[in-house]
Design a protein that fits this description.
The complex is a heterodimer of chains A (287) and B (288). Chain A has eleven helices and ten strands. Chain A has 287 residues and is an alpha/beta fold. A six-stranded mixed β-sheet of chain A has the order 6-7-8-3-9-10, sandwiched between helices. In chain A, strands 2-1-4-5 form a four-stranded antiparallel β-sheet, covered by helices on one side. Chain B is 73% helix and 0% strand. Chain B has nine helices and no strands. Classes of the chains: A alpha/beta (287), B mainly alpha (288). Chains A and B meet through helix 2, strand 6 and helix 3 of A and helix 6 and helix 7 of B.
């Protein structure tokens, strides 16, 4: 059963070109779906549309975002906000800009629980402390009293993960959560997210451009090109035999650290031309 | 990594900021005392004229009279007493006009920068149009319409200078609005107003504080300029601008009538801006 089900979602720049072209995908309860594609393919745009944080210059032109059985796009804005707030959370890309520099860590995690979800202050504090322990932050009491600038990037990303899980959401959108970190920290953070996801049974929409990450964390993946889903497969099937030529080329382009002699294989021009033709045909066919 | 706070560079910044803060706050404190206690601490009545004591030089020069520390003007009025009394108008204008300008301008800037859309369009066009007026001419025109007086000056300063806040705060709010923590707050279900007050405002506050203190200095200057062109308070009340204006006519015979209020004005405006810089360093969580 899918918790999030996107059907034929189209998004465009106001008065401009389409950014998402009839995107459909499902995220099952407690499962992880990876969203891959090159820069500008619209991966983050899907996450933002689900969470209702699209930039004001962008508009949804059609489709459905069905969250837990209800199409969010048919709800009045207040009710939509309330539902998203109650069931979803975001793990943002850049831990350096994702914590408010003016507030201590503690209140940044707890204030939302208290102000919006009506927890008591004591419950929220206990919860925050327990979460920091769960994401393996040493000395959580002191960290709760710290300002973000006093902590390292890896620490901050751990805090953001803890904060995302604070209200036990059913769905988390992780928007390239490891891109801003260096490789050694990346691995720990990935393991942490996968572990938390499994323990809490949270559905996860994992936006990334790194197929290596997908193979470690996800059960399903969608490959995007120019806002169009070109492949939607189970991860095991995908790595065994990608169905679309573009996603095959993308997989082949992943550098292999174990075999430097293999060199780099950029996506061939012929494949790009073919997938562009597909997009053009789609646009010509009307949406 | 928490221990790293005691870095030498940071404590150096703090000490320098501290000195600056204390010097400027000290000068402004002295002025505040002068303004509050002017009738009691001024050695003479600032309006008392005595033509026999006209153009007395300050105390260290030959021909000075004891009790007239900074000399007298051409009508025999005591320069020190007039500066002390002038501090009243200067500080009232600085505090009241500065604060109102700040609240009006910062609110509009915050709304424009955070809400964007048509709110931003309206406020931004207003700022553009406003800033096309030459400010001094605009204020003279305003005073001419409103009539001279303290209230008119304050209104004129607010009307002219709110754009200074609105422009800068709008840009800051816009930059803050693009940060991920704002997105997270929205996802969590915080409303627009709540997000603006809790996520944006605290980060714009250091800038607002600096602008506010700068504006206080500017308000003092504007008041002086308006006094200089005789459009300020009634000529009976001593103001620094009025003193500078009167001193100009006798600059060759009695430079002190011009120079002392000018130096006071200069130090005051400088103190306000330095106070702002010092406070910003205190407010900024990264430097704190």
């Amino acid at each position: 059963m899918s918790f999030l089900s996107i059907r034929n979602l189209s998004v465009r720049l106001k008065g401009g070109p389409p950014l998402l072209r009839r995107v459909s995908l499902d995220v099952a309860v407690g499962q992880v779906r990876g969203l891959v594609g090159e820069s500008g393919a619209g991966k983050s745009m899907i996450g933002k549309a689900v969470l209702g944080i699209l930039p004001p210059s962008v508009e949804i032109t059609g489709g459905q975002i069905v969250l837990d059985g209800t199409d969010l796009l048919t709800l009045p804005p207040k009710e939509r906000r309330r539902r998203i707030g109650a069931t979803c959370a975001l793990i943002p890309q850049d831990p350096l800009t994702a914590l408010n520099p003016s507030h201590r860590i503690g209140p940044q995690i707890t204030d939302r629980l208290v102000d919006i979800l009506g927890w008591t202050r004591a419950d929220a504090n206990t919860r925050a402390r327990a979460l920091l322990e769960e994401v393996q932050i040493p000395n959580p009491d002191r960290v709760l009293r710290s300002y973000p600038h006093e902590l390292s990037g890896g620490m901050r990303q751990r805090i953001l993960i803890a904060s995302a899980f604070a209200a036990e959401p059913k769905l988390i959108v992780a928007d390239e959560p490891t891109t801003a970190l260096d490789v050694t920290v990346q691995k720990q953070i990935l393991r942490l997210i996968a572990g938390m996801q499994a323990r809490h049974g949270t559905a996860l929409l994992f936006v990334t451009h790194d197929l290596g990450v997908v193979s470690k964390v996800c059960q399903h993946l969608s490959v995007l090109y120019a806002g169009m889903v070109v492949e939607d497969s189970a991860v095991t099937d995908f790595f065994a035999a990608p169905r679309h030529p573009y996603s095959a080329a993308l997989l082949a382009a992943t550098p292999k650290y174990t075999d430097p002699a293999a060199g780099l294989h950029p996506v061939p021009d012929a494949v790009i031309d073919a997938v562009r033709a597909e997009v053009a045909a789609f646009d010509a066919g009307g949406r | 990594m928490l221990e790293a706070n005691g870095l030498d560079g940071r404590s150096l910044i703090r000490r320098r900021a501290g000195l600056r803060l204390w010097l400027s706050a000290g000068w402004l404190g002295l002025l505040a005392i002068a303004a509050l206690l002017a009738p009691w601490i001024a050695p003479h009545d600032p309006l008392a004229q005595d033509l026999f004591l006209g153009r007395l030089p300050p105390f260290w020069m030959a021909g000075s009279e004891p009790g007239y520390w900074l000399g007298t003007d051409s009508l025999g009025r005591d320069v020190l007493s007039r500066i002390l009394h002038g501090a009243r108008i200067a500080l009232i204008v600085a505090l009241v006009a500065g604060s109102i300008t700040c609240v009006v301008g910062a609110t509009l800037g915050l709304l424009a920068g955070f809400l964007r859309g048509w709110v931003d369009v309206v406020i931004s066009r207003l700022i553009d149009i406003w800033m096309a007026f030459p400010p001094i001419l605009f204020s003279i025109l305003l005073i001419a319409v409103l009539g001279p007086g303290l209230t008119s000056i304050i209104i004129a300063i607010v009307v002219i200078d709110w754009t200074r806040f609105a422009r800068v705060v709008r840009a800051e709010a816009m930059a803050q609005g693009a940060m991920d923590y704002v997105a997270s707050a929205r996802v969590a279900g915080r409303g627009r107003l709540g997000t603006m007050m809790r996520e944006i405002l605290p980060n714009v506050l250091p800038t607002i504080v600096v602008l506010l203190t700068l504006e206080m200095g500017i308000a003092v200057i504007v008041e002086a300029i308006l006094s200089f062109v005789n459009l300020s308070i009634s000529t009976d009340d001593p103001t620094w601008g009025g003193m500078i204006s009167e001193g100009r006519t006798s600059i060759h015979q009695a430079w002190w009538v011009l120079v002392f209020p000018l130096v006071t004005l200069f130090l005051t405006v400088l103190a306000f801006s330095q106070l702002g810089e010092g406070l910003k360093d205190r407010f900024d969580p990264v430097l704190r």
